[in-house]
Amino acid sequence: MSHIKDIDKAYVAGTYARFPVEITSGKGSIVKDETGKEYIDMGSGIGVTAFGIADDAWQQAVTEQLSKVQHMSNLYYTAPCAQLAEILCQRTGMKKVFFANSGAEANECAIKVARKYAADKKGPEYSTIITLKNSFHGRTLTTLAATGQDHFHQLFQPLTPGFVYCDANDLPQLETLVKENKVAGILIEVIQGEGGVNALDEAFVQGAAKLAQDNDFLFMVDEVQTGNGRTGKLYGYMHYGVQPDVITTAKGLGGGLPLGAAILGDKAENVLGFGDHGSTFGGNPVCCAGAISILNRMDDAFLQEVEEKSAYVFSALEGAPGILSVSGKGLMVGIETAREAKAVVTECMEKGVLCLTAKTKVRLLPALNIPMDVLKKAVEILKEVCAKA
Ligand SMILES: *Cc1c(COP(=O)(O)O)cnc(C)c1O
Predict the structure, then answer these.
(1) Which of 46, 142, 251, 281 to mutate to test the pocket of ligand 1 (most atoms within 8 A of CB)?
(2) Is 169 exposed, middle or buried (CB count within 10 Å of its CB: 0-12, 13-18, 19+)?
(3) Ligand 1 centre distance from Cα of residue 223 (Å)
């Protein structure tokens, strides 16, 4: 056991069950551990390093800004923050952006916006937020309340009140919840990530958007995992023919630096005024400069390549021995395996491929620019491991 693992075990809060591997360097989709062993990274820091480790253009954008100004308070203007907000709005048809530092904080902002929108228009009793069962929205007390999984709730009562949960894809149930509650908003992941990489039905997503429109509450999409090119479109909702009132995102947005955003549409753009919300680090110029470099390279041709890699992964895995089903979109892939997912991930790691799990599935979230030959090698190893009895 290396020194670092011992120090970590002694001094870092024990909230993570780490694999016995210390990552010391990397480039693109290849990372190295403390012994010099190489791995193909099929997790990209849980969908964060959108262009892989130490991507040249991203690194240049970040270090250039780092050498100018690393932080200013939000009392002043900085260029990367303003320019990133413009890009996000232009690429989504939305109107304004609030910057945070994580997915949970982006969702906190969305929930505040929905409640204030409803309170301003209808009264403060219109505070209920509908989320879905099996969802995941973050680890703060409010986003835990939004997360529709009981086991996350048990240890930390009382959570923020005012959340009700609907079964995914059950539109009649959603209609009933809208009738029975004073609703401020609905928050959904169009593909439930942590819940097992389950894409919602188009009819349900469109029905939810229509209910929000007809009843004048906010339709909010949590794109923390599905956003920023992950599904083969810039944002996951773009597969569904809907326009959200609020989009939240984080993970891949900063390309590896902490950055979250709540992107506000027509209905929501002016809900927050001076002093209504804030974040000391939100819109950090270094993080935003990195994000600009990431988003500006996600053009149609790039997203087309993501789709092509996705088509390869799905066709290689579907029906392969030991693989029961493949779900997701783009390079957000859930794999139901005959063997226990954890055993598959552990054995893949031993064979030099880092994969993730989501519930009982193996999950792949590789860097979006992973070279085809590297992707093929990883998929072959994964298939080999899954095929074992
Ligand atoms: C990861 C995730 C979050 C939480 O993001 P943090 O940056 O860890 O706070 C929220 N929603 C979804 C859909 C996620 O995948």
Answers:
(1) 251
(2) middle
(3) 9
Which backbone phi and psi does 190 adopt, to 5 degrees?
Answer: -70, -25
Task: Specify the ligand 1 atom closest to the Cα of 226.
Answer: 13
Pick the closest to residue 258 from 226, 281, 228 (CA basis).
281
Domain ranges of the chain: 3-54+299-386, 58-296
Nearest-CA residue for atom 6 of ligand 1: 103
Using a 6 Å cutoff on CB, does residue 223 contact ligand 1? no
Q: Please work out whether the CB of residue 137 comes within 6 Å of at least one atom of ligand 1.
A: yes
CA distances for 38 relative to 16, 27, 45, 306, angstroms: 23, 11, 16, 24
Give the DSSP letter string of 26-50: EEBTEEEETTS-EEEESSHHHHT-T
What CATH class is the domain 58-296?
alpha beta
**131 forms bridges with which residues in the sheet?**
165
Ligand 1 midpoint to CA 105 (Å): 9
Q: Is 222 in the pocket of ligand 1 (CB under 6 A)?
A: yes
Q: Residue 138 C-alpha to ligand 1 middle, in angstroms?
A: 5
Find out whether the beta carbon of 131 lies less than 6 Å from any atom of ligand 1.
Answer: no
209 CA → ligand 1 middle, Å: 22
Q: What is the DSSP letter of 157?
A: P
**For ligand 1, what atom is nearest to the CA of residue 106?**
9
CA 332 – ligand 1 centroid, Å: 14
Q: pLDDT tens track of the chain, all 389 residues? A: 569 999 999 999 999 999 999 999 999 999 999 999 999 999 999 999 999 999 999 999 999 999 999 999 999 999 999 999 999 999 999 999 999 999 999 999 999 999 999 999 999 999 999 999 999 999 999 999 999 999 999 999 999 999 999 999 999 999 999 999 999 999 999 999 999 999 999 999 999 999 999 999 999 999 999 999 999 999 999 999 999 999 999 999 999 999 999 999 999 999 999 999 999 999 999 999 999 999 999 999 999 999 999 999 999 999 999 999 999 999 999 999 999 999 999 999 999 999 999 999 999 999 999 999 999 999 999 999 999 97
CATH for 3-54+299-386, options being 3.90.1150.10, 3.40.1280.10, 3.40.80.10, 1.10.1040.10:
3.90.1150.10
Write out the two tokens for 378.
């990883």
